[in-house]
Amino acid sequence: METTNRVGAHGAAGTAEGVPGARRTVDGYLRATFPWYGLDDAFTGPRWLMQVGTAADDTVQHGSTGHGDEPSIRPDASAAEKERFAAVVTVAASPVRRSGDGTGVLDATTVSSAAWLAGSGLLVSTWPAQLDHSLRDDWLDQQTETAFELADDLNGSAWSVLSLPVDGVPTPFHYRESEFGWVLAGSTGPTASAEAGVHIGAYGRGMSAYGLGFSVIEDIHSYVSE
To answer: What is d(CA 137, CA 133) in angstroms, rounded to the nearest whole number?
Structure first.
């Protein structure tokens, strides 16, 4: 799907036209026409914004919210063992459609889209501490291609089924574990704010996926650090 642009990475420094970095970050989330999901109220730890992705016509298509410890860019072995985090990816459910500027076609989004975004997000957050920096790009390319192939085969042996609550309703998710952490993906039903529902992906390390639950974020500002 054509959603490679990034709008406001978490922790962006500086200002643009007098707008603080945190405000620029949340603005991308506020432009979305679908509801954002995060961990439900059973999670009481820190929450933070990550980034949103846009289509070619600049409409917001997906984004992620973080929970727990913000993962290091390159953790050492001891840090990797101590970090506890989970990221929740929300993807707008969309059919194949023409771009807003009429210049092309945007791919449909599916639960595989959420699985792919979650899988690639986990890799970026957890690449091996012992890996030489000069080899990182090659390793990431190889692992990202593997994550894409796995996301395209959610009924394959790499995935199991895990039922987790979404807005209090038990919902099936595709789930897999790796040496870097876990990834899951599923879809919600229609809601008051999204007739087609959304696709939810998640990934994490140090926090068990089995005890998680998801819910609509009522106020995205609650994820902005003071």
So the answer is: 8
